[in-house]
């Protein structure tokens, strides 16, 4: 039997996840889990690079795991774990720090953005974020990393660091490839359709959170910014708002954009927005119910995390021990 390729991804347990996180990463994972050996982490160590409320961080960690499972990520097929439960991440990060230049970290787009947004707390961890992410990926001899465009630069730097280390010693890390989601998967803000829907947007009406109840979902869609004209047609250049709603509708129904347009031929914007809202609310409800059921079963979730951490640590420690040997750490 052919060995399956290894896939690695993670989500930070910060803010509330949006339908963008569902349509993008999580929904993709559900199909990818059948073709790859998957590792899915909750990146709580990345999360603390900006200030978090400890009790919320703790709770969100479980919520994210429950959500993965509620969406259909199968803990039997995949290794699901919490980053801080596998010490090898911090350990490899330290070694990789010595193969990463301060200048290249200072030039990272996300670091520059976050430095502006969190000017009061530009901490070392924020700057080191990409190196920790490289450690995440490289520990598992990852072949592919499914990411959004905003993480592209981070995967590039992980590749650079891997190659640098491999060249300095001998092949140690697999050099990972980024795997971009298919087009049509990009979900924009409902209030500002030129921007990506974000879990930390200033205006909460622009984002549909996976935790939003039916009334909230429908209200937000009703208020979504549309464009002049009255035709429901996909044209991101001139009709950013309507095109975004069509993308959401097609992602949630599995229909093509052309089929989505046909569903609303001759209808007005009001009917269209209501229909998209109802479609999304109908889809979220069973996920929310299952997530709540799982959260009530803490023993089960902790079992998943315990076994995930053990399996992850086994794989990670193999790589870490090779690294320690190559750099000359005396091992007992
Ligand atoms: N930085 C990623 C994000 O914010 C999360 C993440 C952490 C990640 N480690 C990773 C993604 C490793 C892919 C691979 O979305």
Q: How is the main sheet built?
A: 3 strands, parallel
Biggest sheet: strand arrangement: 1-2-3
Q: Class by helix and strand content?
A: mainly alpha
Give the rounded overall mean pLDDT: 94
C-alpha geometry: globular
Distance between the terminal alpha carbons, to the nearest Å?
36 Å
Order of helices and strands: EHEHHEHHHHEHEHHHHH
Share of β-strand residues: 5-15%
Secondary structure tally: strands: 5
Bound ligand species? tryptophan
Helical segment count: 13
Low-pLDDT stretches are none
Helix content: 40-55%
The radius of gyration computed from the alpha-carbon positions, rounded to a whole number of angstroms, is 21 Å
Description:
By secondary structure, the chain is mainly α. The protein is built from 13 helices and five strands. The strands form two sheets. A three-stranded parallel β-sheet has the order 1-2-3. Helix 8 links the parallel strand 4 and strand 5. Helix 3 packs across helix 12, helix 7 crosses helix 8 (about 150-170) and helix 9 runs antiparallel to helix 12 (about 270-295). It is globular. The protein starts with a strand and ends in a 5-residue tail after the last helix. The mean pLDDT is about 95. Tryptophan binds near residues 8, 9, 10, 11 and 46.
């Amino acid at each position: 039997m052919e060995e399956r390729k290894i896939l690695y991804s993670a989500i930070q347990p910060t803010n509330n996840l949006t339908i963008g996180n569902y349509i993008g990463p999580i929904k993709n994972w559900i199909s990818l889990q059948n073709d790859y050996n998957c590792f899915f982490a909750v990146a709580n160590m990345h999360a603390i690079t900006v200030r978090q409320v400890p009790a919320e961080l703790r709770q969100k960690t479980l919520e994210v795991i429950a959500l993965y499972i509620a969406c259909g990520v199968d803990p039997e097929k995949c290794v699901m774990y919490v980053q801080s439960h596998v010490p090898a991440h911090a350990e490899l990060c330290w070694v990789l720090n010595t193969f990463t230049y301060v200048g290249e970290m200072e030039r990272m787009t996300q670091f520059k953005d976050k430095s502006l947004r969190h000017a009061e707390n530009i901490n070392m961890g924020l700057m080191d974020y990409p190196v920790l992410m490289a450690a995440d990926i490289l520990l598992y001899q990852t072949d592919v990393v499914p990411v959004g465009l905003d993480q592209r630069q981070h995967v590039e730097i992980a590749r650079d660091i891997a190659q640098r280390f491999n060249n300095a010693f001998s092949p140690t890390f697999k050099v990972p490839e980024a795997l971009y989601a298919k087009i049509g998967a990009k979900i924009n803000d409902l209030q500002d359709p030129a921007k990506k829907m974000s879990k930390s947007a200033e205006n909460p009406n622009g984002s549909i959170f996976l935790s939003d109840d039916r009334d909230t979902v429908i209200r937000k869609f009703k208020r979504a910014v549309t464009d002049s004209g009255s035709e429901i047609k996909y044209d991101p250049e001139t009709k950013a708002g309507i095109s975004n709603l069509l993308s959401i509708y097609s992602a949630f129904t599995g229909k093509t954009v052309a089929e989505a347009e046909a569903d609303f031929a001759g209808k007005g914007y009001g009917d269209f927005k209501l229909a998209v809202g109802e479609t999304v609310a109908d889809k979220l409800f069973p996920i929310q119910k299952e997530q709540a059921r799982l959260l009530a079963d803490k023993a089960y979730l902790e079992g998943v995390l315990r076994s995930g951490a053990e399996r992850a640590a086994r794989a990670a420690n193999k790589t870490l021990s090779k690294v320690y040997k190559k750099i000359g750490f005396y091992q007992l």
